[in-house]
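$ ./design --mode recover --in tokens.txt
reading tokens...
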């Protein structure tokens, strides 16, 4: 079987309305993929960036898959949260990106978005705080329902990924 090893880090984020941010992440893959080693999700620490600077997380990634087919290529999904001075958390953005399909080192920027919600939800968010949230987190990385959402652009998550592929060519898959 072919193997895919993803190493690297979630470097940080920029362009968000808040300066105190942390990230929840996960990786999903199709049925022909099996996670051999590593975590399929996690959370970074909170970083309080200075105005205009990137929030730095340097959160490590080390994920090892084996696969029987290429459908359902792995992808990373993210939730970026802000934390206020009282420890209250609020969603700042959702996003996802595919793992690169060639071996090597890659700097990946993952754009994020937030649901706009109804007019009533936007008014409540303005006066009370708290952005609208997704009911189902699967909407982040599955295409069907996501395209029907009304969203606004948020910030960008910066990744540094190393992709190692083993036995893909032996299984007649050309990469790179």
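writing sequence...
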């Amino acid at each position: 079987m072919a193997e895919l090893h993803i190493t690297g880090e979630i470097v940080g984020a920029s362009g968000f309305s808040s300066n105190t941010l942390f990230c929840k992440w996960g990786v999903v893959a199709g049925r022909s993929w099996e996670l051999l080693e590593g975590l399929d999700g996690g959370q970074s620490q909170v970083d309080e960036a200075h105005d205009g600077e990137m929030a730095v997380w340097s959160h490590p990634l080390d994920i090892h898959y084996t696969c029987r087919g290429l459908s359902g290529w792995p992808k990373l999904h993210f939730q970026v949260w802000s934390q206020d001075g009282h420890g209250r958390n609020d969603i700042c953005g959702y996003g996802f990106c595919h793992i690169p399909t060639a071996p090597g080192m890659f700097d990946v920027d993952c754009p994020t978005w937030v649901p706009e919600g109804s007019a009533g939800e936007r008014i409540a968010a303005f006066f009370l705080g708290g952005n609208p949230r997704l009911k189902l987190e699967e909407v982040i990385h599955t295409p069907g329902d996501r395209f029907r959402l009304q969203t606004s652009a948020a910030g960008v998550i910066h990744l540094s990924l190393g992709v190692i592929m083993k036995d893909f060519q032996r299984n007649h898959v050309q990469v790179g």
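exit 0
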